[in-house]
Amino acid sequence: MARPNGLPPGRSQYDGTVAAQTSESIKVNSVPAAQEVEVASRALKEMSNVARADHQRIDLKDLLANSSRDSQYPELPAGWPAVLSQEASITRPMPDMVIDSQRQMQAACFCGVFPEIEHAWASVDNVLYVWDTSRMSVPVKWQEEQAICCAGLTRPKPNVFQQAVQYLLVVCTTVEIALVGVHVSRDANGNAEMKLVNLEHFRAPSDDVMMTTTTSTPEGRIFLGGNDGHLYELEYRNQSSWLRGRCNKMFDMGVSGVGPVGKLSEMTNVMPSADKGQSPAGSTIVLIAPIPPSESSSIHLMAVTADGRRVYLSSQPVNAPPAPVTKRPVALYNVTSRSAITPPAHQGQSRSLNVTVAHYSQGALLLADTISEGNSRVLLVGRDLTIPPVGTSTGSGPGLREFVCEISPPTAGEVLAFGLCPQAKPLLPVIDNTIKSELATQHVTPAQHFMVMTTAGKLYPALTLSTQLFFVGATQAHRLRPVDVLTKILREDRPGKLAEFFSLFGATEASAMCYAVATTHAQEASSAIVDRARAALLDTRLTGEAALPSGHQPGASHPAAQGGFYMGEVVAEANKPEWSGGHRGLQTYLQRLLHPTWDSRLVSPTKANPNSLMPNLNEETLKALQLRLRDLSGFLQDYQQRKLEQLRKARAKPASYFGHVGLGGGFGQTDSKGRANPPAKRQRLDDPQAQEADKVQEVTALVSRASEACFLVRVLIANQLSRLTQLIDDSWRKRLQNMSLKDLVCSKDGEETMTQIIAVLLDEHQKAAGLEDSSLSSRLQQGCPSYFKEDDKLYHTANGELRRAQTLQGTPRQDITRSALDKLVRVAKTVDISHVSPLLAQLGAYDGMVALALAKAKALDPEVVAAQKSEAGRLARERRYEECYAPVIQILKYLVNPDLKEGSGSALAVQGGLPAAAVDEAKAGILRRGASCKDNFFLEQLLAGLVSARAISELINLSQAPGMFSKVQKHLLKAGGLPTDIKPSLSITPPPLVALDTQQVISLEMLAKIYTHAENGDCLEAAAAVYNALATRMNGPNTNAVDLEKRLHLFRQAALQGQALGNGSIISAMEINVQLMDIQIRLVHELTALQASSNLPEGAPDDLGLRLKSLQGSVQPLVDLYNQYAAPYHQWELCIELVHASDGVDMAYVQQLWDLYLKQGYELPGLQSLDAKRNEAFARVQRVTSSCYPSKTALPLDHILLRLEQMSSGVWPHRNVTPLEDHGGVADNMVKACKDEPGTVQEAYSALLDRPGGDQNNPDVRAPVLRMRVLKSLYCVLLARQSKLDEQRSYGTYQTYKSTKRRVLSELIQSCQDYSTEASRLQHAEKQSVQDLFDELRDELLHGSQRA
């Protein structure tokens, strides 16, 4: 949203009149909202480069070393405003009570000032009087038993006294030191009322030492100077007080300044040898002042003599590098001295000094001496901050130049004391102790005010002693800062002096001060002064103009300028303009305003609760900075219009050249000869004034944005920022904790974080003030439009309407919801979908919820960058999902499965979810809107969400919507890792799938179910193909692993699809897969047990562990199952089953497998009898036939019967074993193994009888004993066929049964005849009995045949 033009309320001086008058010819474009952060960052970088000098530390020692003795005290220009001025002189007599007491004085009288509380004091003998110097007031009286010799005032140590004790009055008598509590309050008129509190236990003896002076530290430590030349510390705490042991001369208080004092050194020769020729009286030291570390790291003390010389002392050797703080000083060293100060020349006054009182504070030295009877002069010595002329330095750096200024007229009476008045709070806090020029601090720190205590009056006779009594006058002296001097010059309206001011301070510094005056509040400066400061900034004679570096000719290097063809050129950094002093002054002034708070963190966690963040900047500081920045921003907008109009008139060029700052312009399309000019951009780069105008535009954007940031933080503080920060997410709270004011202004992160906090703020405000209250949002939109734009206000208004709709029912609920949705769609880009979606779901606006998410996605990515296959495209897709689609998908997943509480789904759950009756409607509404949308990115995320929620029924319903089946299919194929261009088919054999993750597996399983639900041939085959692909996929680690049981299940699912399809080839192929996987699983079990037993077959490979791992990890082909796993480890049963699944295996090989298999059972340990061994053989045959029957390949029945009959006869696998006599045992077990089909067994026996002799492997096949056993078994088989024929009567029609019975009886009769004949041929003792059995059965069958 464009930033509103014009100035903030309350600044009538900048009413935009000029801008309005010139708007048709010149227009300053506001910075687009999307570029505000970038522009502000660019301005900050440029500003930091220009103002870097402010951060350069110049040590006092270097200044002294480089200063020229001849130019140490340059005189101020004639007519220059006095730097030290007398604000108000209050010459009132002492209160009558004090005067009366003085007249009766018996011992001593002392006086002084307490500038901290604007009071003076006087002691007469043992009575102390304290009174308000600002008015005639009755003094407060304090009485001691002994004469009072000195008094002082200090702040107390913390946690010692009650809060009512604001100060401590240190009262020193000749015998003891007493502490007295002080409480000062002021009425509505500012008049002070003081109360003294007796602190009975806080006294200490002085041990016969009379204290002559007292001082204290800011922490409340009290030091006393005695007339014996010693220093004492008065230590006090909430139990008792006493004097510490005394120390001498120079003292150390430890690294932190809180340790015990201790003597380090004593210097008896303070004055340097060069100054030895001075008079002894002039060498008297009148002041020793500490030099703070902010001024010097190596000079620590300054001594001032009576004749105005200064001696600088150090606790380190002169040429030694600065010592670390932890290294304590051990001695005093003389560094250098500075020549005596020469007072300004006045008629009748001496140019020499006899200093009686001195004071040093913050670089300012006050001196007082008596110039005549009854008059004194007060001198101020301070840094001369004007540009030094050539030859005023002796070294490589700048020298120390100081001005000397005198209060005029001379002060009446003798100066008794100086005191630094309590300063008003600085505009902004000082964030470091680095010494900075007053030029750098004057915009944020107030001017210094001093209290001067003087005597004035006449001599009074005393009763007992002759003494002089004085009236006391208190004078307020004001030291002017350079900006105050400028204000005086502007007030006096002296153009010559203004030009001289710019010349002395330089255009940059003078312009910076002009900006400070031009944006001063009305109560601080008159409108005339402000107007003159503004006019000065527009005067290029004062500020200078932007110019290209010397030697650069605009356009001279262009071929077009010489008649050639212009192809453009690289703009060198060397062509960057040298900005005008006015622009550098703007950057300097702004940098100085921002620096004290710019890098400070906005908040810090509390000790009690790390999630609770407290503001580091107070409201007062932020308000002061905001007002300064607001006024500067308003002025700059007016300034730009005036400056551009000035440039246009001066050059008499078309207005279009300067028409749009930042957009370029042109001198015209052709030159005087009709040749094309270089491009407008090149021309603008060659025009430094136009470039500077662009820079001013950037600075204006930075100023405006910084002002708005201050306003916003103030609002947050006023609305309990610490509570608000506990309501935002941890990620945003962490960002805020590390954020500075600079980050807030110049980073996207700062803007986004504030958006989150503002949302919480308005939400809480609506809860407290009502859903229809928009006062706070209006205030935010007006006060910080960069952070709370019009769209944001509209969004939060809509949010309030949604909450109000929740309290209504029926048509009003629907109308308000619709109104809110209309607003939200208009500002979709700023909508927090995760916050709004649960509300819309509860209000039943399911279509609207999806439509809003789609609208925001379109607003965020109008160019559809998400469609690009690049990093930018990936980021755009991620942003669409996170900010637009995810909340809707999360709600849908929660509706599908209430256990899936993520994001907005969790928020909806917290809000109570939806009624059961509305859940289906909500799901249908979201799916319906998703199916009809044209946003393929949303559809992809919708499908992905349904898959992750395993919402198969919803996915099936969505696939049945018009045009959706192919989209769903494509998504699931892609998600599962299958080709998306063709439908899966068993006729196409793709390579095995790689290892799939959980979501890929779920995608393919859901695809298969959708195919199955479609119930057409192509889809059923596709379903079988998908299941087959899942079953054969590669194994992966951890969750991507797939066990064999799962593979078996998938193969079975594929087989079911083949059965539903009715395709024999598919059924056969799928059933073989099932069979092979079943065998593989059994192989794993068998080999695992074998490995555990450590009883490997002879000759078996010893890498069983590795083979098992491979066997368990993937689908193995039949050949590998046989050759690598089954056969090497003698798993003969599984070998036979593998033969059953194969094609073209030699029958002799199969017979050999059966021999190994049966022999393996025969030789099992624990089977002793032949009957037990044969039963094991029967069981083995039964197991194989249960899965392989009626396979001709895997079941050579005649061979199996042969081995079983041989085993029963005791001739196989070993001979000479006692035979078994139960002739029907083999037949009965084989009929059972063959699924109760005795005809099959009869055929096998018949084939065995038909075998020719001469088989070396089976020499017994023609032996009469074996053949006789076979015939006996055949007899049992025929009986079984006869019995089964009778059982089949209940099946089918009677005619069918009659026909079948005749045929079977005929076959049985013929078989009886054949077997009887075969028995008759045998040379066996039982041949007749066996023959009779077949004959009798034949006759019985013939009889039955006749009945049939």
Q: What is the molecular shape?
A: elongated
| Fraction of residues in H or I helices | 40-55%
The count of β-strands is: 30
Biggest sheet layout? 5 strands, antiparallel
End-to-end Cα distance: 106 Å
Strand content: 5-15%
Output the number of helix runs.
43
How large, in whole angstroms, is the Cα Rg?
Answer: 54 Å
**Which regions have little confidence, pLDDT < 50, spanning 5+ residues?**
1-28, 241-249, 457-472, 554-572, 653-683
Mean pLDDT score: 81
Decide which structural class fits the backbone.
alpha+beta
Give the helix/strand layout.
Layout: H1 17-22, H2 36-50, H3 60-66, E1 84-92, H4 96-103, E2 109-114, E3 119-124, E4 127-132, E5 140-143, E6 148-154, E7 167-173, E8 176-186, E9 192-205, E10 211-216, E11 222-226, E12 230-236, E13 241-243, E14 247-248, E15 250-252, E16 262-265, E17 285-290, E18 301-305, E19 310-314, E20 333-338, E21 355-361, E22 364-372, E23 375-383, E24 402-406, E25 411-412, E26 415-420, H5 438-441, E27 449-456, E28 471-479, H6 482-492, H7 495-518, H8 527-538, H9 540-543, H10 581-598, E29 603-605, E30 613-615, H11 619-651, H12 680-685, H13 688-718, H14 721-725, H15 730-737, H16 741-746, H17 748-769, H18 775-783, H19 790-805, H20 810-826, H21 833-842, H22 846-860, H23 871-896, H24 903-910, H25 916-932, H26 936-948, H27 952-959, H28 965-976, H29 998-1014, H30 1017-1032, H31 1044-1061, H32 1064-1093, H33 1104-1113, H34 1118-1126, H35 1132-1140, H36 1147-1162, H37 1170-1188, H38 1197-1209, H39 1225-1233, H40 1238-1249, H41 1264-1287, H42 1294-1321, H43 1327-1347
